[in-house]
Please model this.
Amino acid sequence: MIQKTYIAIFLILNSCTMKNTKLIEPKAEKINTSLSAHNDKRIDEYYWLKERDNPKVIDYLNAENSYRNKYMKDYQGLEKKLFEEIKSRIKEDDSSVPYFENGYFYYTRYETGKQYPIYCRKKENLDANEEILIDANKMSKGHDYFRIGGIDVSPNNKIAAYGVDTVSRRLYTIYFKNLETGEVYKDNIPYTTGSVTWTNDNSAIFYDKKDIETLREERVMKHSFGTNIKNDKEIYFEEDEAFSVYSYKTKSNKYILIASQSTLSDEYLIINANDHNKKYKIFQKREKGLEHSITHFNDKWYKVGTNWQVYIYIYETPKGQFLEQYLKIADGQNLLFKKKIIKPWIGSSYTKTEYLGKSYNSKLKLIDNKTILYGQEVYKQYVLPNDFLKGN
Model:
């Protein structure tokens, strides 16, 4: 089956080449730009193409698109047929498995014939009336590109902060919506990752700011809800360009974490979500080669460390103590869990029940690659086409 498909594509492209030899392929202009780095100089003839707003760059891209359309003109019908065949194998009116958080079940669903997700929730149980948080199909109208970066609801369940990207550069603008009235506030925060972390008193959010040129997540900011973004406070700036930062809340909801990560090193800063005006504390200072993550549960800190993707270690610290304080007392004595990864290139995962004794949501269970249990009930089972060939 796969071989036949490759042969068909080859014949199509080959016949296109024979039929369109008279078409003139657009060629980008060569403009020498001298670049210096690490005591080395080089000439880049196409460096000017990075200028996104340069009219010459836009004209060149339009010429490339026009050339492609003319080149494939005779096969527009086949393109449409292939697209419809692929789309027919996707369940259009699909929905996600709901998850329970702070009194509500949250889920995402799709409607047949529509391209974008609808974000919903139901209060207390799945038989309750549906509340639509965001319908991306309506919001996307008038945009060539549209994507929701994340939806974060305030602890009092009244305000939703969500990120929107309409350019396709992963530069999200954060908006705020009143879930009681449906009003979208005029305040918005540009150039972010699209996600926020609420303080427990609902008064402020922490968000991650990007560099407009490099798109690196380089700083964590704090915005007091209802105030001018010009007054936002910089909480942390990552000076090392090899690191990126992001912020999030622990599962216990007691702390806001600022994670600074590079390829082979991690560092975590901790802020009390109930007393967020105080300066952060460092969980453990960064070390080259030390990769780890942390979580907080039942007033204890847990560290998950990796050793060249071979072992996962999980440590428990005494209540109220950070890891660097604990290591001075009893290094490694509270090793709770150790698991060897059989296939490092694929990776392996662990569940919270394996080392905490209790799961945050133990009702969900993956039975196989298409069936999910919710309690004892099969919640979702994916239906495969009758002609589906597993070997492909």
